[in-house]
Amino acid sequence: MAETLKNFGFGEDETMLRDSAAKFFADHCSADKIHALVAADHHIDRENQCHWDQSLWQQIVELGWTAVCVPEAAGGIGMPVVAAVALAEQVGKAAFPSPLLATFNATLVLNACSSDAATKALIDIAAGKATTLAVTNQQGSWNSSDTDVQVSDGKLTGTAYFVQEARKCDQLVVSAKTTEGVGLYLVDTAATGVEVVPDAIIDLTRDQAHVAFSGVTAIELARPGTGNKAIDTALPAILSILSADMVGAGEWLLQTTVEYAKTRIQFDRPLGFFQAVKHPLVNVMLDIDRAKSLAYSAACAVDTGDEEAEKLARMAKSQAGDMAVFSASRAVQFHGGIGFTWECFVHLFFKRQMHSQVLFGDARYHRSRLADLMIGKAA
Domain segments of the chain: what residues? Predict the structure, then answer.
């Protein structure tokens, strides 16, 4: 039986980290600033560019956020996953464009590799080297055995798809097949033979690409046959962090819409006076609370080694995915005629929610996996 922690293990250090992040984003990343950064050009045929503030990223590195999930033995802070979840919530609430969450995900996989090369990569992450996962195939599967990348004599060939924040990151954790099974490998994004091809996605606050490898020299992180285990071990924490990002974005959408409903006058009354508006907003609040509780519960289960961690993480991602769609759609609808316009900041969070809810599987997918875990697969 895993240890039961009070408040999901969210203590004084985690509270200070969350509050400092909230202040940082309030000072530097208001919605108007983010909109000006990523949505300055509204033309549909605009060039696919990667917009982010690298000076703010450097400040994050100096604050030690990239080192949160890195063990102390590798030069990190060694905080629990629940601390990363708290940061992810604030990142989502600001719709902050950065490779921070992608770096968290890579860190979690590296923690599960238990090799000298993985430790070296973690040391680099603690020092601020942005890293992302390149483990998904063209069909969207992150099961390592389905990878489209092969390795022979330490060189990678093939393509990884749906790579998050590829243009913001310095290195990639790549899953690749060998005759002995699937292993994990470290590749510098600037290495010879690496081609980063940007994808056109709706989320203006993120960057996605597919990455082609042509005889690229790679460093082995997890030997062939152990890549699946490392990814599977990290997955509950990854899902918890992504769910928290959606919770944060949902909170922004709810707060912004409630404020609009208080001030927008319709038929001589505030918009929020009408039950057709106030009741759905209450439902959004309840959905956010459910997703938030599940995200922190899943993170706590990971931190305590609870065998229920995967179930809780899939519950969190399922609930957060449904909440993301609901919160975003209600925000657009209740902002009325301006809600779908480019000038209204709501579209930034709407698009982020739509992107997040399908990352690592949508709500329906995770409910299906939960059914397999809890009642067994169909014969």
Answer: 228-375
